[in-house]
Write a structure and sequence with these properties.
Strand content: 25-35%
Shape: globular
Number of helices: 6
CATH class: Alpha Beta
Largest sheet: 7 strands, mixed
Number of strands: 11
CATH topology: Rossmann fold
Bound molecules: S-adenosylmethionine
Strand order of the largest sheet: 5-4-3-6-9-11-10
Radius of gyration: 16 Å
Structural class: alpha/beta
CATH architecture: 3-Layer(aba) Sandwich
CATH superfamily: Vaccinia Virus protein VP39
């Protein structure tokens, strides 16, 4: 395993992000100010959230990869910056879920801060578990915990779930469930990275009868590393 893909290194990054002396309570991104609660994935410590927003077309002049006036679900909303920006950009119904209760509270706080609490529903749950069985969305999106940890690894804190996925168990379920949650013509999207195991992701997709289509790739520097992020659309295999 390369250093870049090392789950041990990602767990160290998780611990450091919680304890760094410069961890702020608020941060500026995408032209707005945001609350950051304790125990929540911190966008200021990595370029990934900003890159995710650019790739989706939520900020900047890139092509929007979501339906602007449609419905949007973000799995793993963290601070809520992506879900809230989707609502501010015109999405009429936004749902944000996270496995971390602190992230759900943080998303609610930021929806209130930016006065879109009437359009952003923040729910605690594992992937789609908090939704009604029939709920569907024009855009289904997850900026995932793309680093592969051994299947037997048990999280020591819920914050670690922002960084690594043991055995890609959550990814497997997302590959199956995300396309089942789209409206006709909707898109199921996964924001992944070359910090993750691309071969394993493609093997899983094939085993689940899913096709992965690249919508966008973006390389950027993170400390000494160059990282590539990839936005995939997931569809049932033809
Ligand atoms: C890389 S972070 C992205 C956070 C935020 N979307 C952002 O871009 O700043 C991944 C998020 O997925 C959440 N997560 C991990 N596993 C999950 C699961 N099974 N169900 C829901 N959320 C999950 C984590 O708690 C974390 O907030």
């Amino acid at each position: 395993m390369t250093e870049l893909k090392s789950y041990v290194r990602s767990l160290e990054r998780s611990r450091s992000a919680l304890t760094r002396a410069d961890r702020p309570r608020t941060f500026a991104m995408a032209g707005r100010e945001w609350d950051l609660l304790e125990d929540v994935f911190a966008p200021p410590f990595s370029a990934t959230t900003q890159v995710a927003m650019e790739i989706l077309g939520l900020v900047g002049d890139g092509e929007p990869r979501y339906r602007r006036d449609g419905s949007f679900i973000e799995i793993g909303s963290g601070t809520g910056i992506i879900a809230v920006t989707a609502a501010l950009n015109g999405c009429e119904r936004v749902v944000a879920t996270d496995i971390s209760t602190a992230a759900v509270e943080n998303t609610r706080l930021n929806a209130e801060r930016h006065r879109v609490a009437d359009r952003v529903r923040a729910l605690h749950g594992d992937l789609f578990s908090a939704l009604d069985p029939d709920e569907r969305f024009d855009t289904v999106y997850w900026h995932s915990n793309f680093v592969l940890a051994p299947e037997s690894y048990r999280y020591e804190t819920v914050h670690e779930a922002a960084y690594v996925d043991p055995g890609y168990q959550a990814h497997r379920r997302y590959l199956v469930e995300a396309p089942l949650r789209t409206t006709a013509g909707g898109r199921a999207l996964l924001q992944f990275s070359d910090r993750g195991d691309l071969d394993r992701l493609h093997e899983l997709a094939a085993a689940c009868d899913r096709e992965l289509t690249v919508h966008c790739r973006r390389s950027f520097a993170e400390g000494p590393d160059t990282i590539e992020h990839i936005l995939y659309e997931i569809t049932p295999a033809s």
